[in-house]
Design brief:
three-stranded antiparallel sheet, about 130 residues, about 10% strand, 6 helices
């Protein structure tokens, strides 16, 4: 699954500059280049039966992987398919953007960060 570190790498490639030293500046840049993000790991917090990494989640969702595990194309396709299957099964094909859009299951897996800057709390509060 793509994570904050992957977004950091992409932003560094897109801008040909070093990443911002402050987290808030990083998220401002992230919002500029990726205005709408749905984080599968963050969505999983509302799907009680889903646990584990991408492979485990995709198996629970009965999705088939195309290509080898831990290869970018294969992982991206499986992540996208997992998102759409989760949206269908757990959200009735209608995800509430105010609750799920632009929320990242965060850095070091210890925080959830809302890119609007309004919602920053520990995972134990979810």
């Amino acid at each position: 699954m793509i994570c904050a570190y992957d977004f950091g790498y992409l932003i560094k490639l897109l801008t040909a500059q070093n990443l911002a030293s402050e987290e808030s500046d990083f998220f401002d840049m992230l919002k500029l280049y990726f205005p709408n993000i749905y984080d599968v790991k963050y969505l999983m917090k509302s799907c009680k039966s889903l646990k584990g990494g991408l492979q485990e989640v995709s198996e629970l969702l009965e999705l088939e992987r195309v290509g080898p595990q831990h290869q970018a194309g294969s992982d991206c396709l499986l992540t996208g398919n997992s998102f759409f299957k989760m949206r269908e099964i757990f959200f009735g094909d209608n995800i509430d953007d105010s609750k799920y859009c632009d929320h990242l299951f965060g850095l070091g897996n210890s925080f959830v960060y809302s890119m609007d800057g309004m919602d920053h709390h520990s995972i134990h509060e979810l």
